[in-house]
Amino acid sequence: MNKMALMRSPSRTQLRLILIIMLGLAFITLVISNIGRRLFKETPAVLFSSSELSRFKETLAKWPNKPKAVIYFLVQGNPNSWAKFGKSLKLLDANFNGVYRYPVVVFHETGVTFQQMNDLRRETSSDVYFQLVVFNVPQFLTETPPNRTACSKHGVGYRHMCRFHAGTVYDQPVFNDLEFYWRLDDDSQILRPINYDVFSFMKIKNLWYGYILITHEPQQCVTGLWELTEDYLHSSKIQTPQSFYKWKKRNMFYNNFEISRVDIWKNDNYVRYFDHVDKSGGIYYHRWGDAVIKGLGVAMFVPTEKTHCFDDIKYKHGFWDVSMRSLPSCNINIPHRRTRH
């Protein structure tokens, strides 16, 4: 009888217990695996960026009585670019932000070191927040982007930057609760004191988009973009493009200086348009730049009377000093000369 009992099949209770144990072990394995993957992804740079975002959210929670706005840069960690950025930030402090005290958000790739960040913080009076960005060629592209394009000698990295400024930057969490932003490049220079708050000016005047000048892109840098945009307008049945058909085909805002409402670029109209442009691959195959893409966005979705040219600000970027008389006009409907990059 004892032998018969030993050979007897497990009871239902025992089977349930075995099943519970097996499921428990599977769950524990899954949890450990996910934790491992998470820890692998959470490098010191990622963790630091996350802590900076938390600190930024705390700043927003205690925001004073002024427009919710930031000044943002996209920078590289190489010594030449970092030195230019340091000079740009010092001039910004001296001529605007030392008085008006808006947060400075620095988007950067992994090449920026903690030492560089710490040194910068010691040298600026601005409250700086660092945010890590990782650039990859989009998976939806059907062909490998060329190393060079007919437009320029710039490689794929430059086109990552174009895509970022044209649209993906607004997916960054720091933009979630903002009204305005001011974009500057790492070599932008504010050369004279600005004696008013540019964000309050935009808000009081109910302005949507502020710029420094208008120029245009070479034809080889906009191959197919105008036609794609016209087709998009027809297929999406947008009835009243604001000034699209007055906008010259190769026009663009010189948007290394750009003061804008955030919601222009988060609005469904622009989001859908940018997605259409993005999915076409033109940014990577032809080097369509962020300036010309966003210029078309403004022409389609921003009333002309909601734009403003900050021609009172003495500004320099690269070869161009905006105070020079020979530079293009601020007039939004006048054709202009080529920008030098």
UniProtKB/TrEMBL annotation:
One Pfam entry name: Glyco_transf_15
Q: Which InterPro entries match?
A: Glyco_trans_15, Nucleotide-diphossugar_trans
Keyword annotations of the record: Transferase
Q: What's the domain of life for this entry?
A: Eukaryota
Q: Name one GO biological process term.
A: cell wall mannoprotein biosynthetic process
The UniProt similarity line reads:
Belongs to the glycosyltransferase 15 family.
Q: Protein name, please?
A: Uncharacterized protein
